[in-house]
Amino acid sequence: xxxxxxxLSILKINALVKAKHKGMHNDGGxxxxxxxxxxxxxxxxxxxxxxxxxxxxxxxxxxxxxxxLKDARLQAAQLRxxxxxxxxxxxxxxxALADVRASRANNKTFGECAESFFSKEQHGWSEETRLxxxxxxxxxxxxxxxxxxxxx
Length: 152
Known about the structure:
The protein is an alpha+beta fold. 46% of the residues lie in helices and 20% in strands. The protein folds into two domains: 10-87, Integrase, DNA-binding domain (Double Stranded RNA Binding Domain); 108-151.
């Protein structure tokens, strides 16, 4: 037997939020509205079972009312499709973010990485150490400064 989808209505959600009715309120199909009365916040959660570990996982989808009930249902439908295809929504998003970070890192040059290193580390260095590092990089690494970091 399949679960009904669309158990929550806008009126019911507004009443729950106004009353700060703590808990997870099920809309069906893995979509929940989580209300935290301590902070007076409500957020959409998609709950699903991991195919490998068989543990329940909760994927945040955004705050109510920033994400409407209609939009939350559309997102939940997309996430259900992903789960049916064997794709874990949380792991998929993490992998996509890792790919973006890797592509950004691949686009950096050695010089940009060196400048980033200097700006983060130089605060604990003496003036002499700062000058020594700067001269060393300028003197010995000048041909590398414009090269992509992946080629160094």
